[in-house]
Amino acid sequence: MWKAALIFYHLSALGWPLQAQEDVTDAVIRPQDCSLDCIRQGEPGCEYCRITTSDVKTALGFKTVDMFGGCIPKPCFDLLGKEDPELCQHYVRAPNDVKVELVQESNPKSDTIVVSWKPSYYGIAFLRGFQVLLQTLGGSSFACQLFLFHRNLSLPASHAQKVYKSDPFSGLSLGSQYAITVMALPVPEKWERFYQSKIFSTRSCAEKNGLEKCKKDWYPKHIKVEQEGTEVNVTFNLAPPNLGIRSYFSLCYANGMKKYTDITPSSSKNKTHHSYELKGLQEGTNYTCEIAANEVDAVRTKFNVQVLHIKKGGTSPLSITPSLALMLPVCLAVVAILVVCLAALTRRRPQLHMKRLNIKPDVITQDRESSTQEEVVALPSQRLSPPRLLMCYSSNDGPAHINAVMQLGAFIQQHMATQVILDLWDSMSVAGEGSMAWYCRQIRESDFILVICSQGLSIKPKLPEQEDGTEDEEAERWLDFGPSTLSSDVAVQLVGEEVGRAKARGQDLSKYMSVIFEHSEETDIPTELRLVSHYRLARDLPLLFSHLHKVALHRPGGFLKISSISEEGFNKLPAGAALQKAIHEAGVERRSNRRHPVEAGK
Fold it and tell me: CATH number of the domain that 122 lies in?
């Protein structure tokens, strides 16, 4: 009898923690330090474990895990499915309630986040873990964290209310956008509804540290405009000395005119405010002016200046004698009669000449009226969906060039009514079907293919050979760039071969285009791509729009003009300003590489 009571006591003691765990809702579960052996054997202390990159390398025996930012595409099969393949064959729905929390840190130049989520109760009994992917929006850098449950764990539906958290993601650039993706493991064969994504922005420097500590975000807050006659004086507050801003600039524009003023205050006179004079402004004109620190991408403060008409005095009025007062109306009447007669003769002579030539005056009048009209050119209505544009580029020109490519794709998609296909925007599909298979399918399905030509296209990347069976560190360095580094360059070669075959068969080449940025040269365009239309950006954005939508820029009686893609108007949009900045930075990087070339093999 006592043995039965003892057994019942032990069973009850084992059941108490489980019952208490099920009653707690919205509990926060954080990652644990466990070994892969502990997870595979199903020991109780390995409920929610972080899997490091070194663990994956040790388990798989190769180092290509760096290509995926610390994770692998199907971790359940590779890490848990060897002993029991059935563990990784069930469907699990995507997590819910994905949130991003900012973590306080001492580094003033970066942010740190922690991601939290709740698992879905659909398939929760077969849940084996989570994979959290962080990717720079508009960039190629990413990081990944992998978390696994032990193989004997089977979660009840009540655990769908528990909150799971990731490890901190640190070193995130301030004022940047990121995309976070949380996947439920195992990943199903049909890649749909198994992950949740969320786009978030890190804090700006001013939000984290205060405006007075951020050189890029500082701007003049207090501006006072004083006008005495035609003299316009402007007073503004100076930046704090710790920012190291020594010069400023002012830009005023009106009616197509611009007036630029360099401002260099003297720190010995006044350290808080400075006054300067706006010169060369026209009377009777309203100007919109901007003032900012003379720094790259400095925030500008706008103010208005109205230059009034100044009545010039000092001239004595003419003394009119009585005789002149009587003669003046008569003279004015005679002058008026002469003007009327002269106008009648001037108008009569062309009409007589037209009658001799059998030309009707109303035809010329009608032509003049029609020449002042602007025709509205509409886009072709037969297309039900926007054209699909695949963008290919070289990854050998550095991160600034890749950023320019990303910003160009964002601008085309936002303001040129085009669906842009870019490998770095679809990393999940690229990893799922393979980069080259993905490129071949996109080349086949896209309406247009745009190749961004640069100096890097002449570089043929090759993995360094390994000697005597040893691992080559240079090969690892190539792999660390990401899964699309080499495939993007190979895709450009595929496009060149497609162009050559189409030309040989006499097919239409309008599907293919090549572009270069302002800092590039015509020689950067490969020989096979010189057979297709090529444009220089951002100058030829209207021509590119015309090509994509098959509309004429000029036609009799009308012309196509869209301010958002014009050469002088595109940079007024946020996406256009970002594109202009990215192209400028890519040019700076290219010139820097010319001055400091990197020797091959080093």
Answer: 2.60.40.10
